[in-house]
């Protein structure tokens, strides 16, 4: 029985061997046809910089790599691959940073980096707070005048190289037209483009509130708006943000009086009595915001007028520690209060 089987297996053995070789050849070619080798560009992910550090120039966005694996797998997963820069390898100055890792690579796929480093330039940038200055064109109609303007914000923080920041002393806004303006108005103006290398931190929009008043003399009950609200007794190490920056009053005058006299002879004050504790490094008291009553301070020339109403009567005040706060023990001006002014509030007994 066994001899018959061996005899049949040995018949035409050469043809059978050739057939086996052909089958193996076609099988290998079939498997190789599923393998894909191609070069692609993968994005480079850089670490986010903290503090006053920034990338001086746009670093390279991609690097080339060679990918080898099953065709379908390579074509699908290539879109998810990226090169990652290790934060520990990033330093100030110009350096060649190594690409240590390619992420998003599935098992069974081989990736070879064709470029192993990328040039990175990092510089230290400074910050500076500069005032914003409005500019105007034209004039209001006859018998009207522009008395005051309030900017929000009045200052802005810019970033750049220290020697470039020294050249920036203020930012002048584009001109605002006063032609045909007969009443107070507000206009939002965008900060113009700054010199190359200088950038603005935060919003570039500034709201300018302009107070236009009549020149005529009036008696009786009247209103006056656009009175700036100021902090009284603010700790020099703190900055105060007011929920409202202007107040309006309703008043009565027996004698003829110009609106300009009201706006130049009256101050709206709120008590800013929070303090900064340098030992505990915190603002005291901790509860914010502070609710403060608005008080109207009149100069001696306006003793004859009676303030009937203040709007708003109260505002919210939020505090933050001023940048560059002096070290403990350093003398700080706590702020000044007006002199020669008479105080008035909605509760005279307070």
From TrEMBL:
The protein's name: YbbR-like domain-containing protein
InterPro entries for this protein: c-di-AMP_regulator (IPR053154), YbbR (IPR012505)
Coiled coil regions, renumbered to chain: none
Q: Where is this region: Disordered?
A: 320-350
Gene3D superfamilies in UniProt: 2.170.120.30, YbbR-like domain (2.170.120.40)
Q: What does UniProt list as this organism's lineage?
A: Bacteria, Pseudomonadati, Spirochaetota, Spirochaetia, Leptospirales
């Amino acid at each position: 029985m066994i001899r018959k089987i061996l005899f049949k297996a040995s018949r035409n053995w050469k043809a059978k061997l050739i057939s086996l070789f052909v089958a193996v050849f076609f099988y290998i070619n079939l498997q190789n046809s599923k393998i894909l080798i191609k070069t692609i560009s993968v994005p480079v992910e850089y670490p986010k910089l903290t503090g006053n550090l920034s990338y001086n120039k746009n670093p390279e966005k991609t690097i080339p790599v060679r990918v080898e694996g099953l065709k379908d797998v390579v074509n699908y997963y290539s879109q998810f691959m990226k090169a990652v820069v290790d934060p520990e390898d990033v330093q100030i100055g110009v350096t060649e940073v190594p690409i240590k890792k390619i992420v998003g690579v599935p098992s069974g796929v081989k990736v070879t980096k064709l470029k192993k480093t990328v040039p990175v330039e990092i510089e230290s940038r400074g910050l500076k707070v500069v005032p914003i200055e409005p500019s105007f064109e034209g004039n209001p109609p006859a018998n009207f005048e522009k008395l005051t303007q309030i900017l929000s914000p009045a200052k802005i923080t810019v970033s750049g190289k220290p020697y470039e920041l020294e050249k920036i002393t203020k930012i002048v806004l584009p001109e605002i037209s006063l032609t045909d303006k007969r009443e107070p108005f507000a206009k939002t103006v965008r900060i113009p483009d700054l010199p190359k290398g200088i950038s603005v931190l935060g919003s570039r929009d500034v709201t300018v509130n302009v107070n236009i008043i009549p020149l005529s003399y009036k008696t009786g009950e009247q209103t006056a708006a656009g009175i700036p609200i100021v902090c009284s007794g603010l700790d020099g190490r703190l900055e105060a943000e007011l929920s409202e920056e202007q107040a309006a009053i309703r008043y009565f005058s027996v004698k003829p009086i110009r609106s300009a006299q009201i706006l130049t002879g009256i101050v709206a004050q709120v008590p800013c009595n929070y303090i900064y504790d340098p030992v505990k490094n915190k603002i005291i008291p901790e509860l914010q915001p502070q609710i403060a009553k608005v008080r109207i301070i009149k100069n001696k020339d306006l003793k004859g007028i009676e303030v009937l109403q203040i709007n708003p009567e109260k505002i919210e005040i939020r505090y933050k520690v001023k940048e560059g706060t002096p070290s403990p023990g350093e003398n700080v001006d706590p702020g000044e209060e007006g002199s020669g002014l008479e105080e008035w509030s909605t509760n005279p007994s307070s």
